[in-house]
């Protein structure tokens, strides 16, 4: 896998820490770095590159990529034994830009995905599509991470696909999930959905420690992984969507809903309100504000509020399959596409259609929905 910057001058290489890399050893004034053959690195530029990664001194089992173009630059384990990663800045920028660019397509596909999920939840038995649809419904309502088998195994941190039966309590049509997520963040989420509750109860009755399992036509049990969820989303949505898109969508929608309720009183006041909004959304997504702002709130949301143009946003109807504040975000994406230099007219027309925008100047504000999944 490769990534390039806008000039095409930098190409990244996809690597992993199973490949030979540099190691470090503590010396009097810091660390010395060594090649896979044991030779000490003395090149000043290479040492400067490694130091710029800012690998915490307390990390153990440190692996450093020997290639400055590697998408993954370093890994190590923190004081609690959790594996941590340092990525190339261009990799993060490319990944985030692509993620935000997908939001317009995701806005169009979300009603279709939700309809697909509703049909699969009604399937008889415990087939794969029914169980994966249950996880997708939970992604849509809890904003939790999808989960990663490696994180569960190495860090004892969980997401939806890696939950164990001990993490769930089912009572009166409600599902309560309590688990330790990424970065050691404790999650306590209650979902009021009788159909999901019934399916999760049946999952909990199956043998094994894993919560989400399906039963094939031969009666064999199988666990569900993040790749199953992403495959399902691609099939249901008709594009390369992943579970992570739900968190970006949720963060952007919630930020917009909060800011649309906030009066605009100039740039200075707007920036203070943005800080508060990011903090609130970060709490909802269980991230730090810095990560939330960089990775989970579409820049168009914050830019529109800071510039005072959010009041031009028109939401004349809410399409079937979208909530009111989601329709507002779709409208904002359409507005941003129209204003962008060289915007795609077809893309703008598609967004305009689903958001119900017209040339009317009336503004209808969406009510901010309170997230029911905050700790």
From TrEMBL:
InterPro entries: DNA_brk_join_enz, DNA_topo_I_N_sf, Top1B_N_bact, TopoI, TopoI_cat_a-hlx-sub_euk, TopoI_cat_euk. Coiled coil: none annotated. Keywords: DNA-binding, Isomerase, Topoisomerase. It catalyses: ATP-independent breakage of single-stranded DNA, followed by passage and rejoining. One of its GO terms (molecular function) is DNA binding. Its EC number is 5.6.2.1. Residues 30-78 form the DNA topoisomerase IB N-terminal domain. GO terms for biological process: DNA topological change. Residues 91-303 form the DNA topoisomerase I catalytic core eukaryotic-type domain. It comes from the Bacteria. The keyword Isomerase applies. The keyword Isomerase applies. Belongs to the type IB topoisomerase family. This is DNA topoisomerase.
